[in-house]
Structure formats: structure tokens, C-alpha cells
Specification:
This protein has 139 residues and is an alpha+beta fold. It contains two helices and ten strands; from the N terminus they run E-H-E-E-E-E-H-E-E-E-E-E.
Length: 139
């Protein structure tokens, strides 16, 4: 192993803070349809789409000023519509290069390494203020 490849075989996983772990558990189950695959007193482990993330008990609050975790989906409109039906409120974003319309942004040139020419995306907050994104590559 060289210094250059020290993490090349590591698995990356997102960690999301929660001030109220039970409230977060209910949100992820009732709204997103996700159940933890493992749990400890300090956190919940979730797996979806071959990846994993943890929601952990924290005394600190999420700033929610940037996308902390994203989900890639095949049908963005269907997912947004279903989450709205479940009570999710999507963020309005007006940033250089894109603006949401109806809760969905068209982002030209985003994630070129995925073989896409852009992405369609939407953002919402979980029960703890973490900013989560949903994206669909545009090929």
C-alpha cells in the first residue's frame, strides 16, 4: 500500500446527527420507509441500494446549509410526489447555475463522472434538520 491509495479500498458511509434519535427513527421509517438494520444506544444503521448510513445521537445540531446525504433514484417525479404525500416539504433553491421549479432543479453538467450530462434534483430536511437530496442523472 502506498500513501496515495491508503483509502482506495475503504467503504465510505454518511453519518447524520440527531438530537432526538427516536424522532429520527420515526421519520426514517414513516416518511422514507427505511428501517435500521442494526442499532445501538447511540445510533441507527441503515442500508439501502448497497450503501449504508448512520443516524447518531448528538448534542450538536446539523447546520443544514449543504446537502449532507443524497439518494439517487430512477424516477424523481414519482419519488417527490410520494414523499410530498407523506408530508415532506421540499426546499426552494435559487443558487448560481440552478433554481428549483415545483421543488425540482435541473442542473446541467453535474456529476460528469457518472456518465450523465446533468442531474435533476430536489432537497428536503429530515426531522433533525439534516439536508437530504434526491437526484436523477440526466443522460
Amino acid at each position: 500500500m502506498t500513501h496515495a491509495d491508503v483509502l482506495s479500498r475503504a467503504r465510505a458511509a454518511t453519518r447524520l446527527p440527531a438530537r432526538d434519535l427516536e424522532r429520527a427513527r420515526r421519520f426514517y421509517a414513516d416518511v422514507l420507509g427505511l428501517e435500521p438494520v442494526d442499532e445501538r444506544p447511540g445510533g441507527l444503521l441503515y442500508r439501502c441500494g448497497g450503501t449504508e448510513f448512520v443516524v447518531f445521537r448528538s448534542t450538536g445540531a446539523s447546520p443544514g446549509t449543504f446537502t449532507q446525504m443524497g439518494f439517487e433514484v430512477d424516477d424523481l417525479e414519482a419519488v417527490v410526489a410520494e414523499l410530498r404525500r407523506r408530508g415532506v416539504v421540499f426546499e426552494d433553491v435559487d443558487a448560481p447555475g440552478f433554481r428549483t421549479r415545483g421543488g425540482i432543479a435541473e442542473i446541467e453538467g453535474n456529476y460528469p463522472s457518472k456518465g450523465a450530462r446533468g442531474e435533476r434534483a430536489a432537497w428536503f430536511r429530515d426531522s433533525e434538520g439534516n439536508l437530504l437530496g434526491i437526484g436523477q442523472p440526466v443522460r
